Amino acid sequence: MSRVFLAEDTRLGRTIVVKVLAPELVAGLSAERFEREIRFAASLHQANIVPLLTAGEANGLAYFTMPYVEGESLRARLASGPQLSIAECLSILRDVTRALGYAHERGVVHRDIKPDNVLLSRRAAEVTDFGIAKAIQASRVATSGTDDAASGTLTQLGTSVGTPAYMAPEQAAGDPNLDHRADIYSIGVLAYEMLEGRLPFEGTPQAVMSAHLSKAPPAMTRPDVPSSLRHTVMKCLEKDRNRRYETANGLSRDIERYLHGHPVLIRSRNGRPATGSPLWMDTFDVRPGEVWEVAFRATNRGIWMNHCHNLPHAHQGMMLRLCYEAVTTPFGDRHHAHG
């Protein structure tokens, strides 16, 4: 999407990065509109976001600048280093979802989440190029000789800006009404790639975009990936955006729980727990010593007690007893259980 140059800001004596948009993207682009769109993205200030410094146009080329971040891109790390551990993947996902959550709350959708735009520095991940894809798309104009064109009204062309391998289905289809859930899909692709060491869909750009629209991602096969984490990734990769995580902050909270070794409840579309395996212990992804904690959490979330039958016989007594104790306390009276 752009050519990257390392430069020195002589006025302030610092190293910066200059990104010059590719000529094919500049064609039909309004430099004034591009700079205006960039200005809004430049207002984002969060620890996991690489801020935009300036934007402009010179000799027909649009550019923007940002601070130089020491380290390497996630793309370089995936290409050169050993496979990331589960903990490393979760740490990167936590930082990226924190950045997205902050931006989404302020109405900024990234639209191009991919390893190239995630920088690893000082044991943290930072997301770069926030708002660039939107600025490019919003700045493309078409003139038709109509009154609108004569009066300076800008008409957006119906094309998608992004990277095919990481595009949400609605983005690949050119939906003009993209929202933050497109970024959540891209996070799912990113998570899948980090955990599996491969993309869910590969091939020509056209074949990949078609797969995003019509094919289910291949099952994850890495043996040390917990089943509930697989559920989380696949929930991000739902074709229907209404079935993905509602917010990046909600996804971030689940990732934090994984990092701290706490069970995560993945709910299905009807609000009940997802049942991707025959045992609750596997669905919650907990160790045997955590059965009591999981039972208590499940009861306080209103889980039906007849799901206890999915537990091994030895654990049903503990679960039923805890459910009984929970629903007979004032706190438990706010919830329902059946068995």
State the CATH class of the largest domain.
Mainly Alpha
* Count of alpha and pi helical runs: 14
CATH architecture classification of the largest domain: Orthogonal Bundle
Count of distinct structural domains: 2
Structure write-up:
There is one protein chain. With 339 residues, the protein is an alpha+beta fold. It folds into 2 domains: 261 residues, Transferase(Phosphotransferase) domain 1 (Transferase(Phosphotransferase), domain 1), CATH 1.10.510; 64 residues, no CATH class. It is 40% helix and 11% strand. It contains 14 helices and 7 strands. The strands form 2 sheets. It has a 4-stranded antiparallel beta sheet. A 3-stranded antiparallel beta sheet has the order 5-6-7. A hairpin with a 2-residue loop joins β6 and β7. α4 runs antiparallel to α8, α8 packs across α10 and α13 packs across α14. It is globular and about 55 Å long.
In short:
The protein has 339 residues and is an alpha+beta fold.
